[in-house]
Design brief:
The protein has 196 residues and is α+β, with helices and mostly antiparallel strands. It is 25% helix and 31% strand. The protein contains 4 helices and 9 strands; from the N terminus they run H-E-E-H-E-E-E-E-E-E-H-E-H. It has a 5-stranded antiparallel β-sheet, covered by helices on one side. The protein has a two-stranded antiparallel sheet with strand order 1-2. The protein has a two-stranded antiparallel ribbon with strand order 3-4. The protein is elongated.
Length: 196
């Protein structure tokens, strides 16, 4: 009887070990903030830890060790709280340091954007359309335009363009390369840019 009880106990323990292993495999390794990280701070390995978390279908934006090169070459795009899962929208380029400014750009009928998206701004004038600023990081969408992060030397030019002309924002798809928009001032140029 004791042998039977030991055998049954062994089977239960084995089943628990297999179940626990399957549960661990169903979880993803993700970065979690160990402490509060202020906006603009470089992300250092001591500010993050790797945890196992079960993600649902919306968890694609959460970052883990496969993204370590991207994570540790970035700054915090906004204040991060201890315990927060790290997402792509939490990252800003490493050059987004002290020289960056947040600028409200008046854009009519802006396409849907989220923090971390990249936009190209096109300037409409009487003579046509021309690229004005490319690959700007969106900080937030506002009712009257977009708040973008820009180098301080470009802030006054962005304000001028927003007040003197009509700016249109073109949102880059995630992972898209830098924009190649060209100036268009005639139907022939428009047709050539669109192609066959």
């Amino acid at each position: 009887m004791a042998a039977a009880a030991l055998g049954a106990g062994g089977l239960v323990a084995g089943a628990l070990i297999l179940y626990t292993g399957a549960q661990a495999r169903a979880q993803d390794q993700v970065y979690v903030a160990v402490r509060d990280v202020p906006a603009g701070a470089l992300l250092e390995p001591d500010a993050l830890r790797v945890d196992l978390v079960r993600l649902d279908a919306d968890g694609a934006a959460v970052l883990g060790p496969p993204s370590s090169r991207l994570v540790f070459s970035s700054r915090a795009a906004h204040d991060l709280a201890a315990g927060q899962l790290l997402q792509r929208s939490d990252l800003a380029n490493a050059d987004a340091g002290p020289d960056r400014r947040r600028v409200l750009i008046p854009v009519k009928d802006a396409p849907p954007v989220a923090a971390g998206d990249r936009v190209d701004l096109l300037l409409l004038s009487a003579g046509g359309v021309a690229p004005f600023a490319l690959n700007l990081e969106v900080v937030a969408a506002a009712p009257n335009g977009l708040i973008v992060s820009a180098p301080s030397r470009a802030a006054s030019a962005l304000v001028w363009a927003g007040e003197s002309g009509h700016l249109v924002a073109v949102v880059a798809d995630p992972g898209a390369r830098r924009g190649e928009e060209a100036a268009v001032g005639s139907l022939d140029q428009a047709e050539a840019a669109v192609g066959p």
